[in-house]
Amino acid sequence: MKLKKTWIAGTIVAAVLAVVSPLSPATNAFAAAPSWEPDANSNGTITFYDSSGAVMTGGNDLSHLFDFAAASSAEDPTGFHKAAIFFAFPDHTKTNTSDWFASTASAATTYPVAAPPSLAALPATTPVATTGTGANLTAALGGAVLDGTAGYANIVQVRLLQSGGTNFWASDISYDSAAGTWTQVFPVVATATPTTTALAASPVGHQTPGGTVTLTATLSPSNSGGAVQFKDGATDVGSPVAVTSGTAQTTVTTLSAGAHSLSASFTPTDPSAFAASTSSALPYSIGDVPGAPSGVAGTAGNQAASLSWTAPASVGGSAITGYHVQYSANGG
C-alpha cells in the first residue's frame, strides 16, 4: 500500500491508496499549455535552473530534473523563508488540481540563496527551492497514480510550496521514460531566435609582440541582447563584454609570439528569446617583421641567374614560408 498525498489549505494529508503500476512510457507533443493551466490554485509559475544558475526548459536526467526552482512572484505570506518541491500527477477525474496525487520531491530549504549569481540576484522575498539530490522523477513515478488519458498522460505538474503558504507555484513538464528526457510544456517555451556571431581582428592577421589587437564581434540579428566572451583557443581573453547595437569589442596586448586561434562566444541575456552562438575560429599570428636575408649572391648563367642567401637570423616569431625575389635589367 502507498500513501496518497492531497493538497488541503496548503498542507499535505495522507490517505490510503492502492498502488498503481506506472504507465508505459510515451512521448507527448504539446502545441499549447495543458487544459488545467493556468491553475486557479497556484500563485504563479516556476522557473527551473541548473547548478550554474542557467535557466532550464528540459533535460535528459529524470533522476534529477533541476537544481533550483524559483517562484514567479513574491512569497505569500511573508516571513516564512523556506520552500520545497512536489510532483503532482494530473487526474482527469478530479477537476480541482489540489485533489491530485502529489509526492514530495525535495526537502524544504531556506531562501534567499547566496549562489549562483542569477538566483542570488532575485528579490529576497522570491521563494527559491534548492533540490540537492532531490527532484527525482524516476523515483516518484514508481509510486504515483498515473492517468493515461490523452492530454494527461506523461505530464507532471511541478509545484513549489512555501512553508506556511496556502497555495503553490506550478509549471508543467512532459516526460519520456524510455528516452529519459523531459520538456517544459507550461509556461509554453518560446522558440529562441537563432543568432550568428562573426569575429574580426585589427590589424588583420598579424601584430608585433605587445601591440594592440582589437577584437570585434558582430551579432546578427543586431538586437540580440547578451554578452560575448572572446577566446584564444580555450583561454578566455578578458571578461565577457556586453553587446551594444549588435557589436561587442575588446582589446588585448598580451598575446604571445606565435600562432593563435581566436573566437567569440555569444551568451544571450534571455535564452528563450535568442540562441547562443560561436564564431568561426580566426587564425592570428604575433611576431616581429623578419630580418633581411644575408650573404645574397648571384651567379650569371646562359640567359639565367642563380641566387643564394642565408636566412635571416630573426624570423619574427613565425616561420618564414617564402621569399619574394625582384630582378631588374638596369639595377633599378
Q: What gap, in angstroms, lies between the N and C termini?
A: 103 Å
Order of helices and strands: EEEEEEEEEEHEHEEEEEEEEEEEEEE
In one word, what is the shape? elongated
Helix proportion: under 10%
- Indicate the low-confidence ranges by residue numbers: 1-31
Main sheet record: 8 strands, mixed
Strand content: 35-45%
The tally of helices reads: 2
The rounded Rg comes to 31 Å
Tally of DSSP β-strands: 25
* Class based on secondary structure composition and strand pairing: mainly beta
Whole-number mean pLDDT: 86
Entry keywords:
eight-stranded mixed beta sheet; six-stranded mixed beta sheet; 332 residues; 2 helices; single chain; mainly beta; 3% helix; disordered N terminus; elongated
